[in-house]
Amino acid sequence: MGNVCLRLRAYLEPWLPCWSQEADKPTVIDNPWTGSPHDGPRPPSPEPRGIQGRYFVALFDYQARTAEDLSFREGDKLQVLDSSHEGWWFAKHLEKRGEGTGQQLQGYIPSNYVAEVTSLQAEPWFFGGIKRVDAENQLLYSGNQTGAFLIRESESQKGNFSLSVLHDGVVKHYRIRTLDEGGFFLTQRRTFSTLNEFVSHYTKTSDGLCVKLEKPCLKIQVPAPIGLSYKTVDQWEIDRSSIQLLKRLGSGQFGEVWEGLWNNTTPVAVKTLKPGSMDQNDFLREAQIMKNLRHPKLIQLYAVCTLEDPIYIITELMRHGSLQEYLQNDAGSKIHLEQQVDMAAQVASGMAYLESQNYIHRDLAARNVLVGEHNNYKVADFGLARVFKVDNEDIYESKHEIKLPVKWTAPEAIRANKFSIKSDVWSFGILLYEIITYGKIPYSGMTGTQVIQMLGQNYRLPQPPNCPLQFYKIMLECWNAEPRERPTFETLCWKLEDYFETGSSCSYSDNFDEH
Predict the structure, then answer these.
(1) Where are the annotated segments for Disordered (predicted)?
(2) Most buried among 22, 158, 172, 386, using CB within 10 Å?
(3) pTM
(4) Which residues contact residue 121 at a Cβ distance below 8 angstroms, ignoring those fewer than 6 apart?
(5) Residues comprising the binding site?
(6) Smallest Cα–Cα separation from 121: which of 60, 205, 204, 70?
(7) Per residue in 426-447, pLDDT tens?
(8) Which residue ranges make up the annotated binding site for ATP?
């Protein structure tokens, strides 16, 4: 348990600039392109920055979203000219491009799409601070073959690394140990001065591994840039005419959700809110906080249109919709316990971040978790319960005019309007019930008033059919009558990630990195 904080920190490092590692010193390379200062947008006049003038390599493809952006392909070399914008750097392309192509040679790039050319982060086999369960999910992707591998930062031992390898449909993990004088090894009979030497050796021979290393694991999870563009990071009231509503995805008591397109380039989700569904000033205050909350398991708030009705809330698009509908549509055909535990662990990870920021969700439920590609789950609508004006028979209105979704709300929040991260933990327990029952409504057949009465008699949802006792015990911990006795999301995340000590999808070598 003492290592959980280190594990959470290691997971967040790639996403939080204040925790990012200092890049290695660059090797100077020839610049194959010298261009006119009028090719593309001109950068601002920045203050001196540590990485300015350094050379980077693209980790992913990026298609320009605005006229000021620079398109590039995975593997392209770039020189950063200005790093003064949060999440977006002004860069110059170092690849020769065909004349007359009309392609810009400089512009803004998302900073989390590139790595310094001489850094460990630039290696195709290095996956940074991803968790063990994420490593397993990515290696088990159908595009990978036996011998696919990745190296990641150890979750439990800062500065150490782990090797994860796919062998005949099973993921095996090895701890890469470090020498006091520098260097790396799996066994002391053979040591390496760098991880590159380590990889080079084990791609030639298995030498004690389960299999010889072949191709690096495919990087199927592309990070979301911070904001829609470098301009919207700070100026996030955008022109309504820049949004096209393409396809209605759903509707509810607050309005509708649409698949949209921003600036004719970028798919987004758009919530169109019914007039009067919220106080505009309350929403803007809350949205300002929400926009600064960034984590891989939280839906990113991109921008808003609030100058006229209906208010638009623009967020990243998750193509498979809500977790509630996703579970109901599957009903057990493809989703089984292993996937259900993974869903819960991902949600707990996002909530652990909110917990670390002292932020309360207030409406955690399967309907407010969204599903993306490659089994990616993100928490949505955090904070909006504070500002919506709700009218529903299953909503309890307290003396303080706060209206609550009773079946997901902790007793102390119902009785005394006492919201805390611990009331979110209670709601998470209900979310676990939704996950394990494939989206069934909790307290089936009961009204909101009946649920309040039953909770007052210490009633708890019974163990659902086909729900393992281990999973149900976690639910019961979340429903402790004493809020202080409920687990933290940090603890819940750890329990769910380590739920399977052994399983068909992964096994552990003698060198296994426990976390």
Answers:
(1) 29-48
(2) 172
(3) 0.80
(4) 23, 59, 115, 128
(5) 271
(6) 60
(7) 999 999 999 999 999 999 999 9
(8) 271
